[in-house]
Design a protein that fits this description.
single chain; alpha/beta; seven-stranded parallel beta sheet; binds NADP nicotinamide-adenine-dinucleotide phosphate
Length: about 375
């Protein structure tokens, strides 16, 4: 029986990955993290014969031998934030000859993973970064829409969450760049955008409705201008379902941008507690959209939007679906690719959403 080790396996997203893989019963799943008691609690709660708990620190010097001891075939790394992390975990997986899949949303981390390409090929493993909403699902959606275009001119996409806050790592990841500058490909040139600024109102189909969105720094901003060249504009925005949370984050971005505050990071644990306290007053719906503008086969301007709408607080399952889909394929030996790469071109939208069958998720496609 092959083994999947989920680092951060009792975290917000890791736990969902564990539950989905363990349900297969065809593989052994190790719930791993720094706290063995928390790992054991997940094993007890899910209660499968193929589940195991392990104390494992991503920074441990014996990570390679621990992964070998656990018999890891695939490691799913959910222990973010990935902003500022090095590739020690991915390198340990290569050394232990285990495939590596992470949920990273950190631009530099995901876009730089190719640095491990040669060692990964040498050890016959696949190292994949960003097997999550971005860039795995977002790029799969653009790939899906691409045949309708002779030229893609712009890609504008975004995500709005419900009121349920994610885990600490995910919040640290996205709030770490509040008010901070980053490069955005707009009108055929790299321009400076600021995290959580450029506030925009967007109407999503039912059940989501109108939401505030703001600029976010994701791997897509760097990957898409190359992959979909000669695209002239790539913009990604995200937002939270609670208007008060959204507007206060936007306000804080001006304090950071103006130099009155260095970073919102020290406030993240407090902000998460506040978000948990008011969660019950907010929406259980969330959504994702991908809008592509360009020219059709007859060189006529067209626009297509793909929507993903989630109800009943099922949206937080979405960031896990690509990693589950890829891990299952790797465990079944169905992936021929080897080397290290961002998670683009490895999964289709159908493969990703098939993992979410039974959840309150639906897609729509509109022509604008
Ligand atoms: N790409 C995308 O579209 C996308 C979307 C959403 C989320 N994400 C990513 O998902 C990640 C996880 O988010 P989350 O909401 O699940 O966060 P979370 O609930 O805080 O989970 C992180 C887990 O990692 C564990 N951990 C932390 N440091 C560790 C270490 N040194 N060794 C082993 N385990 C460690 C934590 O447990 P202990 O502290 O007890 O060890 C915790 O269980 C985020 O970092 C974010 O980048 C990506």
């Amino acid at each position: 029986m092959r083994s999947a080790v989920v680092l951060g396996g009792y975290g917000n997203f890791g736990r969902r990955v564990v539950a989905a893989l363990a349900a297969d019963r065809s593989c052994r799943v190790v719930v791993a993290g720094r706290d063995l008691q928390k790992a054991r609690a997940v094993v007890d709660e899910l209660g499968g014969p193929n589940l195991e708990a392990a104390a494992l620190d991503c920074h441990a010097t014996n990570l390679v031998s621990e992964l070998q001891r656990l018999g890891a075939s695939v490691v799913i790394h959910t222990a973010g934030p990935f902003q500022g992390q090095d590739y020690a975990v991915a390198q340990a997986c290569i050394d232990a000859r285990a495939h590596y899949v992470d949920l990273a949303d950190a631009r530099a981390y995901v876009c730089g993973i190719g640095a491990l390409d040669e060692p990964a090929r040498r050890n016959d493993v696949l190292v994949v970064s960003g097997a999550s909403s971005v860039p795995a699902l977002s790029s799969a959606v653009v790939d899906l829409l691409q045949p309708q275009f002779s030229t893609i001119e712009s890609i504008e996409h975004g995500i709005t969450s419900g009121a349920k806050p994610p885990g600490l790592a995910a919040m640290e990841g996205v709030l770490g760049y509040v008010g901070k500058p980053f490069a955005q490909w707009r009108d055929g040139a790299w321009r400076t955008a600021y995290g959580w600024q450029d506030l925009t109102r967007k109407r999503y189909p039912w059940p989501v409705g109108r939401r505030w969105l703001a600029n976010c720094d994701v791997p897509d901003l760097e990957l898409f201008p190359q992959r979909y060249a000669p695209v002239r504009t790539v913009v990604f925005r995200a937002g939270v379902g609670m208007t008060v949370g959204m507007l206060s984050t936007w306000a804080a971005s001006w304090f950071v941008r103006g130099g009155l505050m260095r970073s919102l990071l020290p406030w993240v644990p407090t902000l998460r507690k506040a978000a948990l306290a008011i969660e019950r007053f907010g929406s259980k719906s969330s959504g994702m959209h991908v809008t592509v503008h360009g020219l059709d086969a007859k060189a006529q301007p067209i626009a297509r939007t793909w929507w993903l709408l989630a109800g009943n607080d099922h949206g937080p399952h979405v960031p896990c679906l690509p990693s589950i889909a890829l891990a299952r394929k790797l465990l079944r030996d169905e992936v021929r690719a080897r080397g290290a790469m961002p998670c683009v071109g490895l999964l289709t939208v159908d493969e990703i959403l098939a993992v979410g069958r039974g959840l309150d998720l639906r897609t729509e496609a509109t022509a604008d």
